[in-house]
């Protein structure tokens, strides 16, 4: 039997790019077990374990109420419970010049599940899709499983991580089906202006590609630019929006997200894409019915005070991160974070002794200072770092001081 299974070629399968989890686990193995200091994790985007980043009690009570009602113990419809889809459609429509219906919303088991659905549905022989660099590596991993060709366009750090639209145009051919736009930016912490988003929409229309708008960090903004959903431009180009309660409500483990079709011209229906999404939902996992049952109350009754407290915390942490990095000669943060929960930092390797690249930096930092950061090569930029700042402020300060000490100790004399 073993020989027969070997004939199927599982061992010959193309190696996938390592995920964030893979790399962080590798770095953790390099921690010095004799270091008595607490490990400081600045490498992931889950702040929920920190006391300052707890969800609103109202959300917890909504889940308890849904549980006690006994109305949400069974299977949900493939696209989601109608009341939950309706509530999410209303929530999204607050920021749009038109109104979504519940039929425009499909519930998912988090945003990663939404990525899986969209890339699987859009995958066709020979098709390609455009991803930002730097970006979120799960897109590449999912595309590889669907045999979907990936083409990367650059984000420009000197322009606040705007999309290089000239680069986008050079990549598109007759097989390009979609472009992914992440706003607020993960991993860069940028927030696009209305004007830039309008240019993106016009470019996508001219090139004939669908926009996948990753808005997982929607409304978590604290700089000069307001959050504008890409769906505003749905009358220009079809926009498939990925959203979730994970980040704004600080509950990534609840695994509830959505795909919203922002398409008042009905192009997604006419092309058959909407029907393909519906069909795929019939054969994939659902988000937990219990959380679906709680969502209408969570969306309707969460207070502005809860949201503003979270944004204030992120602003303070982002400012602290940017200011401290500015004190370290061998590191450069080209753009002060304005949204989301992370920022990109460039390593000036010629100024450091005994550091080969971003992975080497991260491994040695973990070993010498018990601080975990994500190598930028994982998100598409070699010799950069992604720093997540959504942690307790005192923990962040300690972590940044350790990074500074590491860099000063490694500085070339």
TrEMBL record:
Keyword Electron transport: no
Aminotransferase class I/classII large domain residues: 38-403
Cofactor(s) the protein needs: pyridoxal 5'-phosphate
Modified residues (N6-(pyridoxal phosphate)lysine): 247
Keywords associated with the record: Pyridoxal phosphate
Pfam families according to UniProt: Aminotran_1_2
SUPFAM superfamilies, A to Z: PLP-dependent transferases
Family: Belongs to the class-I pyridoxal-phosphate-dependent aminotransferase family.
PANTHER family assigned to the protein according to its UniProt record, in alphabetical order: AMINOTRANSFERASE TAT2-RELATED, TYROSINE AMINOTRANSFERASE
Name the record gives this protein: Aminotransferase class I/classII large domain-containing protein
Source organism phylogeny: Eukaryota, Viridiplantae, Streptophyta, Embryophyta, Tracheophyta
């Amino acid at each position: 039997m073993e020989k027969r299974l070997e004939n199927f070629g599982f061992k010959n399968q193309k190696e996938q790019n390592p995920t964030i989890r893979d790399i962080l686990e590798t770095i953790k193995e390099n921690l010095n077990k004799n270091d008595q200091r607490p490990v400081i994790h600045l490498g992931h985007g889950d702040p929920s374990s920190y006391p300052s980043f707890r969800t609103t009690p109202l959300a917890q009570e909504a889940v308890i109420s849904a549980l006690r009602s006994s109305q949400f113990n069974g299977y949900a419809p493939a696209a989601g419970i109608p009341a939950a889809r309706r509530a999410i459609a209303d929530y999204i429509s607050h920021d749009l010049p038109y109104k979504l219906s519940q039929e425009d919303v499909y519930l998912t088991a988090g945003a990663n599940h939404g990525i899986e659905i969209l890339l699987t549905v859009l995958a066709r022989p020979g098709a390609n899709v455009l991803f930002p660099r730097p970006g979120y590596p799960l897109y590449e991993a999912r595309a590889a499983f669907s045999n979907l060709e990936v083409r990367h366009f650059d984000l420009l750090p000197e322009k606040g991580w705007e999309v290089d639209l000239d680069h986008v145009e050079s990549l598109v051919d007759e097989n390009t089906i979609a472009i992914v736009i992440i706003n607020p930016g993960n991993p860069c912490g940028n927030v696009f202006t209305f004007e830039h988003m309008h240019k993106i929409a016009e470019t996508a229309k001219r090139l004939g590609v669908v926009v996948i708008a990753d808005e997982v960090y929607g409304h978590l903004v604290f700089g000069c630019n307001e959050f504008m959903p890409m769906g505003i431009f749905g009358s220009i180009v079809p926009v498939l929006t990925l959203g979730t309660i994970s980040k704004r409500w600080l509950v990534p483990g609840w695994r509830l997200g959505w795909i919203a079709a922002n398409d008042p011209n009905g192009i997604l229906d006419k092309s058959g894409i909407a029907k393909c999404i519906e069909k795929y939902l019939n054969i994939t996992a659902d988000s937990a019915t219990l959380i679906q049952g709680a969502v209408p109350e969570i969306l309707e009754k969460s207070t502005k005070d809860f949201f503003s407290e979270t944004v204030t915390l992120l602003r303070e942490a982002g400012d602290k991160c940017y200011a401290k990095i500015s004190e370290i000669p061998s590191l450069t943060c080209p753009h002060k974070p304005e949204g989301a929960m992370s920022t990109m930092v460039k390593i000036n390797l010629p100024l450091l002794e005994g550091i080969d690249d971003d992975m080497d930096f991260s491994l040695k930092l973990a070993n010498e200072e018990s601080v975990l950061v994500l190598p930028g090569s994982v998100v598409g930029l070699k010799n950069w770092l992604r720093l997540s700042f959504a942690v307790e402020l005192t923990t962040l300060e300690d972590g940044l001081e350790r990074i500074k000490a590491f860099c000063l100790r490694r500085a070339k004399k």
